[in-house]
Amino acid sequence: MKIFYGVQGTGNGHITRARVMAKELHAAGIDVHFQFTGRPSDKYFDMEVFNGYEARTGLTFHTEKGQVSYLKTALDAKPITFIKDMKSLDLSGYDLVISDFEPITAWAAKSRKIPVLGIGHQYAFNYKIPREGSDPIADQVIKYFAPADVGVGLHWHHFGQPILPPIIDTPATPQNVINNKIIVYLPFEDQNEVIRLLSPFENFDFHIYSPEPVPSTFSHIACNPLSRDGFQKDLYDCVGIISNAGFELASESLQMGKKILAKPLHAQMEQISNAAALKQLGYGHVMHDMDSSIIEHWLHDDRAVHVTYPNIAKILVQWIQNGMPEMDGDFIEAVWSDVEVLQVKL
């Protein structure tokens, strides 16, 4: 089997999910070629698992001070480049096209009448799940940004819908946790403001990761460039994480039993909905603006939730190899029966 796999590269969550899928696809002996769009080609890192890949411009969202700007997103879009990339994409000889909310791959396949399998969190919004911050623009983005003929939606809970758990690595539960170690990943916020808000909490050690780290003058605040290995090492033994409300990082944190404080991007329906789901499920805390009092309350909270998810990537690869039969109620129920949720005292 030969698969062309397009991945939205704007945030690291899509790439993280693709890394897990790549490992299982390669293990199954499937020939897969990856394409990433949404960021400059020199901004990708730790990409060895893909065994080579294409990088194109694609479409991305413009963010400023923790908020999505649809006007600047439209102004930054390069429709001529997008159409040229879409028309020049060679999909001949592939048995299946997969899109993780990646528009060039999805639209190129659609224009050639090639069926597209969509895998990702965004496809869960085709069903009745927690949804807040929606507006006509957001609805159209979800529907038309990267359309798929078959969409496999992913979420932390099924909400009574035919969706699957997250696609994440399933590492062993950390045995040694440092109770004052906090990971901070707020790449769309002003990093100087982040440091200023965290500086009074001297009893905690903060490890900030960002695409463009700024110097820290505080001994309890370390600022690091993005690194998959470095981030995973710090995430493994930290007690909690402060981040935007992206899906994949929260999924990894739940899998390892970390407490979560999520700050969703303003005007970003997916992140606002993710924050609502975390709060509804009791899986994490939420702050809609950078708020030192909320941060302080969360830092002293000694509770977390540990959710054990099965290897969804392996399940999906087997499903693809079996011809992608309809995911009926028995299939969905069997997958979710292997999910375990535990309340943890830190």
Automatic annotation (TrEMBL):
InterPro entries: MJ1255-like. It comes from the Bacteria. This is Glycosyltransferase. It comes from Candidatus Methylobacter oryzae.
